[in-house]
Each structure stands twice: as C-alpha cells, then as structure tokens.
Amino acid sequence: YLHFNQIETLEPESFTHLPKLERLFLHNNRIAHLIPGTFSHLESMKRLRLDSNALHCDCEILWLAELLKTYAESGNAQAAATCEYPRRIQGRSVATITPEELNCERPRITSEPQDVDVTSGNTVYFTCRAEGNPKPEIIWLRNNNELSMKEDSRLNLLDDGTLMIQNTQETDQGIYQCMAKNVAGEVKTQEVTLRYFESPARPSFVIHPQNTEVLVGESVTLECSATGHPQPRITWTKGDRTPLPNDPRVTITPSGGLYIQNVKQEDSGEYTCFATNSIDNIHATAYIIVQALPHFTVTPQDKTVIEGQTVDFPCEAQGYPQPVIAWTKGGGQLSVDRRHLVLSSGTLRISRVALHDQGQYECQAVNIIGSQRIVVYLTVQPRVTPVFASVPSDMTVEVGTNVQIPCSAQGEPEPVITWNKDGVQVTESGKFHVSPEGFLTIRDVGTADEGRYECVARNTIGYSSVSMVLSVNVPNVSRNGDPFVQTSIVEAIATVDRAINSTRTHLFDSRPRSPNDLLALFRYPRDPYTVEQARAGEIFERTLQLIQDHVQDGLMVDLNGTSYHYNDLVSPQYLNLIANLSGCTAHRRVNNCSDMCFHQKYRTHDGTCNNLQHPMWGASLTAFERLLKSVYENGFNLPRGIEPRRLSNGYALPMPRLVSTTLIGTETVTPDDQYTHMLMQWGQFLDHDLDLTVAALSEARFSDGQHCSSVCTNDPPCFSIMIPPNDPRVRNGARCMFFVRSSPVCGSGMTSLLMNSVYPREQINQLTSYIDASNVYGSSDHEALEIRDLASQRGLLRQGIVQRSGKPLLPFATGPPTECMRDENESPIPCFLAGDQRSNEQLGLTSIHTLWFREHNRIATELLKLNPHWDGDTIYHETRKIVGAEMQHITFSHWLPKIFGEVGMKMLGEYKGYDPSVNSGITNEFATAAFRFGHTLINPFLYRLDENFEPIPQGHLPLHKAFFSPFRIVNEGGIDPLLRGFFGVAGKMRVPSQLLNTELTERLFSMARTVALDLAAMNIQRGRDHGIPPYHDFRVYCNLSSAQTFEDLKNEIKNPEIREKLSRLYGSPLNIDLFPALMVEDLVPGSRLGPTLMCLLSTQFRRIRDGDRLWYENPGVFTPAQLTQIKQTSLARVLCDNGDNITRVQHDVFKVAEFPHGYSSCEDIPKLDLRMWQDCCE
C-alpha cells in the first residue's frame, strides 16, 4: 500500500520481480508520467489504483489505457486511473481516452533501406528513418526475426535508426526489414536483401517466375529476381526469344518483375526472364495464360432442308480455357438418339431429319469465365417422290435428223432426270443433250440410235421411270457422200498404210531415240491379228473423214451446223462397202464353242466361250464396255477439248499438262503406315491381266506422214498434249508432248455383219477381261504358243538364262531392237518375253512376271510327278487353271480388302455363284481412269534390299532409271532385292494433295536431250481421247449429289484449296475430267479410295467375278478338296517358292511389318498341297 505519499516517479523495474502481487494502491500521490512496461508481468494483480495523481494523459500513456482495457475485458482485475492534464480531459478515466483525442500519429517511413552486396569483412549500412507521435522506436528484422543488438557486438543501431553491421560474415546474408513502432501503431519498410560474396559470383535466381493465369483486361506480374556479384541485370523476352514489344502497357518493375496492365488475348504465351552479369547469364521461363470469355468464330445459320436429309449447323468458338460447345433445342436437351450428333468441331449434325426436328436450336459456348449463345431455326419440308409432268412416247424419225424426246418431273427434293439407252446411261455430248427440265435431244439420228430409251427421275425419296421406243427410217436415196466413197477409201488405205509403215521402219530399224519411241514400242501390238484389226478401224474412220472433207469442199460452205451428220453422209450400202474394203468385216471372229469337253474345264486364251450364251463377252480384241454413253465433241469421234476455243459450260477445258502441274504432281511423299509398296505392284500386275488399249499403229499423221511430236496438231492419229506457256520443264522450245489416239474398233463396236450405221468411236481391249493370268500366258493363241516350251512336252513355259540360285529368268524377246536397248552405253541385254508385252516397263513389274513364270513351271513339274501319264497340254492347262485361281484368291481375299476397306467390301458383296447375265467386260471408265488410281501409290524409288534387308551395294533406284532396264536384273542381283523392296518397305500413302510423284510427271521414260512424258497429263488426255464423260456424270451414276457449284463437292473433296484449284482450272464442276477428280476425293475411312472411285471399282470387280463361269469358287470348277488348297494360297508363299533366296516374309506381304520380329520363316507359311490334283486309278 503506497497511497498517500509524495511519490512523483516510478522506476521501470519497480515491480518486476513481484509475480504474486495482488493489490497495488498508488492513489493520492504526485505521479505525472509512467514509463511503458511499469506494470508488466504482474499476473496475480486483482486491484490497481492510480487515481488522484497528477497524470499527464498524452500519447506516452496510451499503453496504460490499453492495459486498463485489458483488465476490464478479462474481469480478473479492477483498476482506476484518471487524467489530471490536459485540462480538457481532466477527471476522465485513462481507460476511455483514444489516440485521436491526444493527436497521436502512427509511424511513417521517410527513408527506406536498399539491397546491398557485400564482400567479407566490410561494413554494411541499412538506412531507416521514420516519423510519428510519439517518436517511433526502430526495430530491425532479419529473415522475419528481430535482431538483438546486445547479442552481437558487430550490430549497431544508430540514433537515426540506421542498422550498421561491421565485419560482415556469410551468416549475415538474408532478407532485412525495418519496423518503426510507437503506441499509435507500427509500419514496415520493403524487404531488402543482403547478398554476401566471398568473390564475384554468377547469377542465381532468388525468385523464379511462375505460370500465371489472368483475365482479359486485368493486370499481371511475373516476379523475377536474382542474386550474384556484380548484381545481375534483369531482362525479358517473349516466345522464341523475341524482345518485348514497345508497348506502354508492358514495364519491368525495379525488382525485375514483368508487369503488364490491361492484358489482351495476344499477351498469352511464354516469357523468359534473363539474369545477366559479367560472370554468366541464366534464364527461367513462365507462361502467362490469358483467360477470355468465349466468342464465336463460326456461327450457324438458319437452314431449310427436306425430310430425310442430313443437316449441319457449324458452331465454333474461341476463348481460354477452350470453350465447350453445347446444343439445346427449344430450351431443352437434344433428343437422345444416334441421329443427333455434336461433332468434335462443335457442329450439330442431324441425320435423317424428321418433321418433328423442326424448331429453334441454340448453340452455347461455355468456359469457366462465362458463356455466349446464338439461336438458329431449322425448317423441315416433307418429302415428295418424283412425279412425271410430261412423258415420252414412241416415235419414228428420219435418219440424219435431230430429235427431241420430252420428259420432265416434279418432286421434293427436285428430281434429277437421267436417260438410259438399252441399260447404259446417256451423258451430255455432241451426240446427246439433256435440257434442264429433262428433255433428251439426239443429234444426227442413225440406226445405231434405235432402241428403248428410259427416262429416270430420281431424288432422295425414290425414283420413277418411263420408257419409249425410237425407230429410225432409212429412205433408199443417194447421199451427198456416195460419189466420193471409192476415191476416199483408196486414199485412206494408202495414207494409213504409209504412216504405219513409216512408223514401223522408224521404231524397229534402230534403237529408240526418244520417250515417244519408248511409249510407242512397248505399246505396239505383237500379235499380227491385232495389228490388222487396228489398221482396219483406222482405215474405216479415215475414209469417213475424207468423204466428209470432200462433201464440205463441194458445198463450199461452212458445215458447222451439219458437221455432226455422219449418218446422212453415205448410203447404208456404201457404208457396208467401206467396211468390206477397209478390212473390218474380214477380221470378225467366228466363234467355235463346240468342244465342250475342253470349255467345261479350261479357259480359251482369248477369253471366248467363257459365257456360252454370249461367247464374245470378256474376250480379247473386243470393244471396252461402258457404264455411261461416250462424250465426243461431234457425237462420233472428236475428243472433248480438241478445239481449244470451243467452250464447255461457258469455259474452255484446261490443258491436261496444266492440270498435272497445278493439281497432281508432287515432290512430297507420305509413307503408308499400314501397307507395303507391294500393294501398288500387285495392282499394276493385276491391271496388266485385265486391260491393254490398242494404240494407234502410227506415230505420224495420216494426212502427210509428218511425226505427231514435231507438228503438234490434232490430225489423226495425233492428239498432242500441248505445253502451257512458262511450263517448268520445257526445253529446246518444244510446244507439245507426244500423244497418239487409241485405235478405234471397226465401225466402233458394231457386231452385225451388215454395217448400216455409224456408231460412236470405241476402243479395243487387247486382253481378256477375266482374272485368268493372261499376263503370264497371253491373250491369244499366238502369244501363248510364243512363250510355251513345246519341245519338252512337260507343259512348261520357256525359260531364259539360269542364275546362281539355279532358278531361271524369263526368256529374252527375239526380233528387231527393242525398247530395252535404248542406250548401248548401259547394256546390250534385250527385253524379256512374258504373257503381257509391258513386262519390261519397270523392274518391279519384271520381277513379279518372273515370279509367276517360275510358279507355273514349279507347279507343272510337281503335277507331272504326281501324274506321269498326263501329256504336256493337260499339264499346261491344269497348271494355268491353278495359277489363275491363285491370282483370283490373292486379289479378292488379300488385296481388295486393303483397297476397299470394310465399306467397299460390303458394296462388292459376297460371291453368290456364276450369273450368265453379267458381262465381265472391262469398262472404258475402269481402264482409262478409275484403275489408274494405282499411279498415286507409286514411290519415287524402287528399293533393293539384301537378305538382311539392308540396301544392296548398287543402291536403290530412282524410278526413271528402272524403266526398260532388264540388264539390272541380270547384272545387279536378280529379282530378290526388288521383291524385298516391295514387301519390306512402306508404300506411298494416297493423299489428295500428294498424288503422282514427279518421277512420273516430270521424268517418265526420260532420255538425254528430250522432253520426258507426263503420266498424269497422259491419263487425262487418254480419258478425253476415249470419250470418257466428266466426273459430274459419274457422281450422278453413283447416287452422289449433283454438283452445280464447286462448294457442292465439299463432302467428297473437303480440302478448300483443292476445290479452288479445280475452279481455276475448269470454271464449272460439270467440266472436270474423271481421272483428276477421282484422285483428289477424300478417302472413305479404312480404304484407299474416294466414294466415286469405290463405286466404279466395286462395280467392275463384281462383274469380273460374277460373270466368270470359270471363277475359282464356282462349284464344279475345282473339287472341294482342291478349293480348300487354293484358299491356302498367299503371295508370301509364292515369294518363298519362287524367289532366288527368300527365306523370311510376313504372312501378309501387303502389310507393313518390322524386321525381323514381324517376319516368319518360309517354313511357317501355308503351302498349296498339289496331291489333291493326283489322278486316282482304280
């Protein structure tokens, strides 16, 4: 009890050591000031009295006010203290006063410390000054811990608040901070760093930048700081180390951080912080991820569709994170069925639209930042089956006139009108025209045009058809051309024979001197009968042309309006005279199918008598079949585009060479990740079993005998490929590439003995149309005898030189110098002789021919051992039958599934037996365009691999060095390296923007100082030569949509750049040539074909199979046991049996496999057991 004394001051530690003090009475004394902490640590205090003293209540006493408030709040102690001064608050309880009443001021920093770099033993000063009321106390923190000046004599706190550290040590480094504190509050300075260095140091990061997400419009900082000695300089770059843009929004903070305000979407990306001093530089990277509200980049539009169609509503959006696209209908969820599909792109696709699908649809783009939405409306119109508005009726017309047959229809969607004649679809040409409403016009009607015409109206709902019969009346009157028949046919025979003889002399009396010679040589017919038939066709057509010229000269007028009228040119009896004198009728074959013992078991070499009701179906040296009627400028024989100034649908047709360079040629090749190069090679070998067009026998024009490549005109048989200006490879001022037309069929396809009408030009297929191994055995008796070994009477084929392996090569061809001896500096080795005259075209093809020639002799030898009583003919025909069946099985069971995929194989359908109503003949469209898709599978190199699947010493061959080079097989390792290069190397992938490699478009048959040929341009020109209708007509034939604009092609040709190229080249989608269009179609998933190409190929292969009486699966062709063995066949087994030393292959040589793990020993590949062919004698 210290009350009622004269106490004026209390020392700070007066009560420090009295922890049990409970009562302290200090009232009625003279105490004016109390030092903070005077009553600290009095845990047992119950009562404290300081009233009736001379207390000065200023900022220094605020600590007591806080203590008294604490007592009051806890309720553990009672206290009393009143202010005496200042007078305005005299008598107030100390516990109730506030800092504001006393004008107290919390500290504020007036001088901040800075980072310091120091070396050992030096003195450091960290400045810190602060003001406040009362005067703040300065406290220093290191690494967030208060520094004690007493514990370390090196530390000193100067009067102005500066921290002085003497004789610095490594332990002094860290983060320092100054705190200024008084009764009104406290404040801290920024943190600063003391960096300690024994010696100069490379930079190291103190703060690494971190990936940061930020919304558009906000600000962001990427922190970055580093230590080092000297202090590193901080710089920043964006992306691939490009300097930061000069943008006022972007600044670098004093500490080194990157600060961007008002962030934009383009600020998103990678940023790199560099810390650099004189010792080194380091960097660290972080991303700014700019989050943005979704915004639409592709917006859907209202659509009106017909019931049953498919409709797409494209909807795409951007933002960050990437928005999710969601669709609703009428505010609710979409129907849960397979018809409604939201694609990965955000497009809403409704398949088989129903009437109840009509309504309002909403596309929503949603991310975590927000959402956007857009509304569209779908209108659905009901379907209406086509109904005829006008129908045709039977009519009889005069020969040589033009006739229009009415037909029109209505429906929803609007129907497409097509016309068929005798089952073949009519196409737009100089002969036929179908008006927009559907009326058919036939120009220059002849007896060939007689027959039943069917008008078909088709839309997606269904179709209707109506037919009529057209009869042609041929009055028995003379014609304008009759007086000129005799002189014209004499002139035609003379000029055609002169040109042919000149060509033969040029080709066969010397080595080939140009790519033109090579092309002509390897296509020149070997069979004299073929030569005579082609000659007759040329004379027949040349005679008509000469008569036409004479008539035109006599009339002295321009016959543009009547130049189509070939049917009114000469009388029927004179037409027969022309046929007789030209040789057409003399070379008509008389079929003899009477030897049924033979025909029931074996094929003829020329394909006749396969179909016993129609013996010429599928036979060699017959006209190609057609899916659609031919398209010629004049309806008879002139190709589309032969007159460059003539417009088609408002546009001139492009030069084929320009189409090739713009759209087809490529130096880039994408390897096929599934299939080997053998896929291509089997396709070419198969093609050479099915079709070979007979080329013109002359390289010179008939009119004056000048060579086609030198005159660059379109006088028959020339049809030169003109070279556009600025073509990338024109040399020596050449204006054109060599090209001659295919030979026409006599009277063009007419089979009647009385030739009383002119038919549109048709071309000759020199081969049988069946898969019958004609590429091994030939397509005529003449060819077959030439390659048989008749001397041994063992049913063998002739063989050539025997290699070290003990296995023979093909025999050499005999006769005049051939295409294989074009360069006497390379080798004097001539061409090999095989069943197809193109066997030497390139070394890969030659190696496959060699393989199958050996397969025949292998099987024949085994059959003779099993049946020693068989004669040579029996062994030969039985072996030929087995080899043909092997090829059929490999093609349909192993090869076609890769080409067609699952969709195409379903389209092809399963084999249901022989159908004698099916014509197996090869169609012109297949031979001239569709099956040439294989050109897109050709690699620019032929790979040659040794037994370890490494390149042989002579290396791989650029394709242009593999043409007509049999010496390389003889001198450079035989056929095995080439065969391994086919099944051991990936093929070329079919990519619409990478079609034919430049070895085929720029170096085909190249020779020194000449213009090489271009395979793509030749394919297009050949299509026009053969009157192949445009691509659009085949879309309609294959039930695809009719394309009136290039945008209409987007489902089949998705690449807009390709569609734009087609538009620049052709002007109208109705003009596009078939070959290039088929090549640029997108592939049907799982296949190597586009939709139109798949339609055409599946149609042809179904006909080949179903119309072949001797198809290997047709019951009775083989016994069940034999058929089982045929189905063991694989190309892998043929390679094992007939290669020189092939010991390991993959089971399926068309599929890519990794060597050696994906390969098997030949011992594990199933074999054909020929014991099933042994005669059993009872």
TrEMBL record:
One Gene Ontology term, aspect cellular component? endoplasmic reticulum
Q: Which InterPro entries match?
A: Cys-rich_flank_reg_C, Haem_peroxidase_animal, Haem_peroxidase_sf, Haem_peroxidase_sf_animal, Ig-like_dom, Ig-like_dom_sf, Ig-like_fold, Ig_I-set
Q: Which residues participate in heme b binding?
A: 935
Pfam families linked: An_peroxidase, I-set, Ig_3, LRR_8
Q: Where is the signal peptide?
A: none
Annotated GO MF terms: heme binding; metal ion binding; peroxidase activity
The record's keywords, sorted A to Z, are: Calcium, Disulfide bond, Endoplasmic reticulum, Glycoprotein, Heme, Immunoglobulin domain, Iron, Leucine-rich repeat, Metal-binding, Oxidoreductase, Repeat, Secreted, Signal
- Gene3D superfamilies (UniProt xref): Haem peroxidase domain superfamily, animal type (1.10.640.10), Immunoglobulins (2.60.40.10), Ribonuclease Inhibitor (3.80.10.10)
Per the record, the major location class is: endoplasmic reticulum
Q: Which residues form a coiled coil?
A: none
Tell me the protein's name: PXDN protein
Spell out the CDD domains in the cross-references: Ig3_Peroxidasin, Ig4_Peroxidasin, peroxidasin_like
Q: Start and end of every Ig-like domain?
A: 107-193, 203-289, 294-381, 382-471
Q: Which cofactor does it need?
A: heme b
Q: Which PANTHER family match?
A: OXIDASE/PEROXIDASE (PTHR11475), PEROXIDASIN HOMOLOG (PTHR11475:SF75)
Subcellular localization is given as: Endoplasmic reticulum; Secreted
Q: Which family does it belong to?
A: Belongs to the peroxidase family. XPO subfamily.
Q: Which GO terms describe its biological process?
A: basement membrane assembly; response to oxidative stress; system development
